[in-house]
Q: What sequence folds into this?
């Protein structure tokens, strides 16, 4: 296997790479700047999916967005999972590798859901040591994403934005800022989204996620199965102007639309990024 | 203040076993705790059901979404996930279906689909070079054994389940009619990957048994002997041709000291 060198991801919009669109992407590569995928989908030892990823890697800069490392779990770090991730990272050399600031397993039992950590000093110390360990194994900085939550831990003492900032400053990891998650949490818990956004260090934000949610009664659920709502576009405009242009992913995982819909949403993000670039020039 | 590990343990118990007291005590006292747990329980369950739908697509199509959901929820309760890699989830579904005495068709179909699932991502194999075959042609067949690729699964079925599997593929001819229940009929299947796609090759029962013996280290001569003794006609050359065409042979070796 020849070593491929990572192509940096430009501050433009990319789309999520899902098997639903493999054929279409290979036959008529869409005009987007980069693609992001879940590395767990390529943990197999061989087969067509790895070959497809190789072809796509040859054409687009790539980002890996993990969902299975259970960063905040108090169980020992899953060495098998980490080794598979490391093998894949070494093989494809993605420009960015990210995970979620969450936990999903305890006592060897995996719930395979992104669950919120109590924002405490104990959680902070624990998750930072795990990120340090992962960064050492991967030999590269990790980006860590803010998640949606549907509960509040009584013991939480550190505001979420401050918690994320402390994680980034302590470990040197980057921040993957998911604006849909910021919005969903703000609506569900009657928070001001700018409390979070103002608290995170601008220089640590290396990627932005945009996605859609589902309304379930009075709650918003982060399904990644709908178009991005106007309020999240509004937050994005704010973020691009205050944080600066960043690689931006249109994230869509369920209720998959035609590829053209993702490309259109990416073009909309590019228009906002382009406006910012023009102002800077 | 409860420790992080205790909070996580209490949450998992609330989700999986429904014992919510410790978890809710760690959550905001605004009356939302039980509703939050119910929501997470639903999200988590739906994720696993979706994973099983993806892993067992033909089974899902056969039984319809509602019944599949009932089966999946029963399985999820019995078999929690043990990895962050969801590709591994669902391995025990065929055995569990058998244990709950589900229809043999569902059991056999699930076994076939798990084999397909494993084969799809198995390590890539290098085709066996034909000239190596020719080099072995003059060897004593009682010493010749065949090794198969990792991408091959051998499956003995009590029903011709491959017909149902084939009819339930997205690209199946729509007018293929399958009469159910399937007749009981010992069938052997080879599950292979060819050009990235999974293929299921049915074999007559005797052919399958011979092939299975080969895969377990029997020599070519002993197989030829069994073919000669078989009452039903088995064409040994055709069997070997099938193996070659399916590119399932990883190597041929000579046993020492026979």
A:
């Amino acid at each position: 296997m020849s070593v491929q060198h990572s192509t940096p991801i430009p501050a433009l919009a990319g789309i999520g790479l899902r098997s639903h669109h493999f054929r279409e992407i290979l036959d008529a590569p869409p005009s987007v700047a980069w693609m992001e995928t879940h590395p767990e989908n390529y943990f197999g030892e061989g087969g067509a999916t790895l070959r497809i990823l190789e072809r796509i890697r040859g054409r687009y800069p790539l980002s890996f967005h993990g969902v299975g490392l259970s960063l905040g779990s108090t169980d020992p770090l899953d060495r098998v999972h980490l080794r598979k991730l490391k093998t894949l990272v070494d093989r494809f050399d993605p420009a960015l590798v990210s995970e979620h600031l969450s936990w999903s397993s305890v006592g060897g039992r995996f719930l395979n859901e992104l669950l919120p950590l109590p924002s405490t000093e104990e959680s902070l110390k624990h998750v930072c040591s795990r990120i340090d360990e992962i960064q050492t194994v991967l030999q590269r900085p990790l980006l860590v994403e803010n998640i949606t939550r549907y509960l509040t831990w009584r013991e939480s003492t550190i505001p979420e934005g401050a918690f994320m900032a402390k994680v980034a400053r302590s470990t040197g990891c980057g921040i993957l800022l998911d604006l849909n998650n910021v919005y969903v949490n703000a609506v569900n818990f009657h928070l001001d989204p700018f409390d979070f956004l103002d608290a995170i260090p601008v220089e640590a934000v290396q990627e932005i996620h945009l996605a859609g949610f589902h309304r379930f009664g009075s709650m918003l659920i982060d399904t990644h199965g709908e178009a991005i709502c106007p309020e999240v576009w509004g937050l994005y405009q704010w973020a691009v102007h205050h944080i600066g242009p960043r690689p931006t992913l249109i994230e869509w995982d369920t209720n998959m639309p035609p590829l053209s819909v993702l490309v259109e949403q990416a073009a909309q993000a590019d228009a906002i990024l382009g406006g910012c670039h023009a102002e800077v020039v | 203040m409860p420790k992080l590990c205790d909070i996580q343990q209490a949450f998992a118990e609330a989700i999986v076993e429904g014992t919510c007291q410790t978890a809710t005590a760690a959550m905001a006292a605004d009356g939302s705790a039980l509703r939050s747990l119910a929501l997470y329980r639903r999200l988590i369950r739906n994720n696993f059901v979706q994973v099983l739908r993806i892993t067992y697509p033909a089974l899902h199509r056969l039984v319809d979404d509602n019944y599949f959901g009932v089966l999946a929820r029963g399985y999820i309760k019995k078999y929690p996930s043990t990895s962050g890699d969801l590709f591994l989830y669902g391995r025990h579904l065929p055995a569990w279906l058998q244990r709950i005495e589900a229809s043999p068709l569902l059991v056999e179909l699930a076994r076939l689909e798990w084999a397909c699932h494993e084969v799809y991502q198995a390590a890539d194999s290098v085709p066996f070079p034909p000239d190596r075959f020719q080099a072995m042609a003059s060897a004593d067949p009682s010493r010749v054994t065949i090794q198969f690729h990792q991408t091959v699964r051998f499956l003995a079925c009590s029903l011709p389940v491959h017909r149902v599997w084939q009819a339930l593929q997205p690209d199946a001819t729509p007018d293929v009619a399958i009469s159910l229940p399937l007749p009981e009929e010992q069938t052997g299947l080879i599950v292979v990957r060819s050009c990235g796609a999974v293929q299921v090759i049915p074999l007559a029962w005797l052919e399958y048994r011979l092939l299975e013996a080969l895969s377990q280290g029997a020599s070519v001569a002993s197989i030829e002997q069994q073919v000669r003794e078989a009452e039903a006609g088995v064409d040994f050359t055709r069997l070997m041709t099938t193996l070659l065409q399916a590119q399932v042979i990883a190597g041929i070796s000579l046993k020492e000291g026979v």
Summary: The CA atoms of residues 92 and 250 of chain A lie 21 Å apart.
